[in-house]
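Minutes, methods subgroup
Present: GH (chair), OT, SY

1. OT presented the first of two proteins processed in the latest run. Sequence and structure tokens recorded below as shown on screen.
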Amino acid sequence: MYLVFGAALGTLGGLFGIGGGLIAIPLLGVLFGLDQQIAQGTALVMVVPNVMLALWRYHQRNKIELRNALPLALTGFIFAWLGSIWAVGIDAQTMRAGFVAFLVVLSAYNLVRMFTGNAPASAQMRYSWPWLGALGAASGIMGGLFGVGAAVVATPVLTSVFGMTQVVAQGLSLALALPSTGVTLVTYAAHHQVDWMIGLPLAVGGLLSISWGVKIAHALPERLLRGLFCGFLVLCAVMLAFKV
């Protein structure tokens, strides 16, 4: 069962460039009754290898520039570590309520972005360092706190503020997410907030399917991909809201 869940989550992770953790956390909390921190830590067991493979697949299709990825990755790593240390000390119910609020705000931001005019997207950045470093810091601390990977925060900002296309932004966000999810998993594991018996088969299933999601992402129209991403966030928020 966990392998099947992992395969479904891996496809979604590849499609949206987020590693699958955003939907895994509500599923582990709602269907399997895990506390919020344990759900987040267990999801990261799947997310880390999924992000690694998805990053490689996105890089094969749209080369990720090191000069853009490096400031995102470095600041994301540092602030994800700080956010994860903060997270393991918070009450589980409070953390779950905060996670739902985080998803609602993210969904609202994406909805507004879909219906407001933006400059034409391109593969070139409108801004570079130090703005990329600031984005990495903000995304990293949110990723460390909620265990979802910094990509879910960085992707909409890279498309709306930095002017990147959806698929290019998702690939660059994965370069940010890899070190930040890695250090977050280590922190959660050190505080015994990981169920490895669930996380490992989820990871195997995700690795088997994430390449499909990446392929689908590059075949979909830009606006449709953004709409699906927004609907995905709303669904996750609704699922967890019933557990708060």
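2. SY then presented the second protein from the same run.
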Amino acid sequence: MQFHQLSNTVPIEFGKQFISFITGDHNADRISLKYFHDQETGILYAEVNFGRLAQGPPGHTHGGAISAVFDELMGACCWVNGHPSMTAQYTTRFFKPAPLNIPLLFSANIKVMDGNKINLEAQLTDADNQKFAEARGLFISQDMETFKKMSQMNSNASEQLREMKKH
């Protein structure tokens, strides 16, 4: 284990229940990600390796790829801590370019909850604890019925599209 922060965590299979832009089939050429949850602190970690197809500046990770992982990580942090939610807003601050093809560690934790508003902080570091970026996010918790309805709407739209293609 390269990151000492992961010693008291459990692996999480987040993203297997649905299609996700970030998680799902791991692609070593783009983004390879594994989640780990510290159940005592609620911190969610993601060990990530950005491959050559995630390049922005030569030899370094595209800022959009980093931001996308932050967004999913903070949302996943809400979910694994019992708060199904969606992103309302987030910001990313970059300190230095993150190199490709080395293991990096993202971490996110809930800082403040106010009603259905969840404020999170996250960071991206390497094995030497060098910080590459940080993010702050506001997420809005939802009841599971909202997500079920969204899933049904998506299924109905897909069916309608298939029917239209037949004619």
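Chair's summary of item 2: The helical segments are 63-80, 144-166.
Next meeting: continue with the remaining queue.
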